[in-house]
Design brief:
413 residues; alpha+beta; 20% strand; elongated
Length: 413
């Protein structure tokens, strides 16, 4: 394997900028919601680039696209890379798109140098990673690994009542292959970090050993509305004041389990939400995360115990329901080692970064050895039109992807 092999950073950047024009927003971002006409245009462009690079194309029944560069040994399962090209309503140029186009650039580079791999290589476009138009999130990879059924995905509807199946058919990406029957020898996903850790540490490459698990909850505290003036403090059934103690405990629990404990209350609804009325009901979300399943479960139990205590102390109605759970996802040691070795060989500054966000690699890890590569993004900002990344960092991440994939695929020379 040629250690001096490098990708064409300018070509990668130009491809990212060309794709970003499809659904471009006035603020410099991208709005390309899944299974819309713009998503079709984005997919069509990337698929054309793949076929121009000599790749064959397969589409499965949930619209996942697999573009294959043949290897010498056709019997070997492909070494796959990829991500998604759908975006948030106020998305950026790099989230997801970088992972797909980094894969296209790897193939272009191998073609430039007439390098034949032992195993085939593939670039995947996963359907509806963002979940901003249809739920569940990470739909294509979720169906692929069996996390939920094709029927469940097909039945999902957007706010206008349009279903996933209808929209897949309409844009021409309702394929024939059964999801999950597509072999994967190993999977790598290159991605902007979507957080501030790499930039803060002034490191170029994040080696990702795992993705945090998460528990999401809906909590409702029920008290009694009353006039803010005549009602003495000691006789109040103030739902908001009790709710805030639970919110503070969410943060306290996260701080008890560093360095990867996370606790967030991101959505709050207060009823009746009037200036001079004591709140009678508060509904809010709770988000707990950690990289260790045992610690995450401990955080879960402490949250429930605190709610039970508050219910007893205050006499207010407090209901808490866990509405979503994703276990922590450790990536395969062989893939993590391949990324680490490639980074060291190429001489980039590096550190381990546990991902706090979900990615398609979480689901591919259920069916194949998987790993991720992070590069910095400006100010750690993502899911935002001002999302930005340095061309040199994107080039570095793609070089690491190239060498990690070659290590797993082997070369026929």
């Amino acid at each position: 394997m040629p250690d001096t092999l490098r990708i064409n950073g300018e070509r990668l950047w130009n491809s990212l900028m060309e794709l970003a024009r499809i659904g471009a927003t006035p603020k410099g971002g991208v709005k390309r919601l899944t299974l819309t006409d713009l998503d079709r245009q984005g997919r069509d462009l990337v698929v054309r680039w793949g076929t121009d690079a000599g790749m064959s194309v397969t589409v499965d029944k949930i619209g996942n696209v697999f573009m294959r560069r043949p290897g010498r040994n056709k019997a070997l399962p492909p070494i796959v890379t990829g991500s998604h090209v759908d975006t948030q309503p106020t998305g950026g140029k790099f989230d997801g798109n970088y992972g797909v186009l980094a894969g296209i650039e790897v193939v272009r580079t191998l073609n430039d140098h007439d390098i034949v791999t032992e195993a085939p290589l593939e670039v995947a476009i996963w359907t509806n990673e963002e979940g901003s138009r249809f739920v569940p999130v990470m739909m294509g990879s979720g169906v692929f690994c069996g996390a939920f059924s094709l029927a469940t995905a097909y039945a999902a509807k957007d706010v206008d009542g349009k279903s996933v199946r209808e929209e897949l058919e309409r844009i021409g990406y309702l394929g024939d292959e059964e999801p999950g029957q597509h072999p994967i020898g190993a999977y790598f996903e290159a991605h902007i970090e979507q957080g501030p850790v790499l930039e803060d540490a002034d490191k170029v490459i994040g080696v990702v050993p795992a993705v945090m698990g998460l528990s999401w909850y809906d909590c409702t505290v029920s008290g009694m509305e009353a006039h803010a003036g005549p009602t003495p403090m000691g006789l109040r059934r103030d739902a908001l004041q009790v709710a805030t103690t639970i919110m503070q405990e969410v943060v306290a629990i996260a701080n008890r389990y560093p360095p990867y404990g996370r606790g967030t209350v991101g959505m709050v609804q207060v009823f009746p939400n009037s200036r001079n009325v004591i709140p009678g009901q508060v509904k809010f979300s709770i988000d707990l995360r950690n990289v260790n399943d045992e610690l995450l479960n401990t955080m879960h139990e402490e949250m429930l115990a605190f709610v039970t205590q508050k219910r007893s102390e205050t006499g207010l109605g407090i209901e808490i329901e866990r509405v979503s759970y994703y276990p922590p996802c450790p990536f395969h040691p062989d893939c993590v080692t391949a990324v680490r070795a490639a980074t060291e060989k190429l001489g980039y500054s590096t550190m381990d970064v546990v991902s706090g966000a979900g990615h398609d690699a979480i689901y591919t890890a259920r069916v194949a050895p998987s790993g991720m590569i992070f590069v910095p993004c400006k100010d750690g900002i993502s899911h935002n039109e001002i999302e930005d990344a340095q061309p040199a960092h994107l080039e570095a991440g793609c070089n690491v992807l190239l060498h990690a994939m070659l290590e797993r695929a082997g070369t026929a020379d």
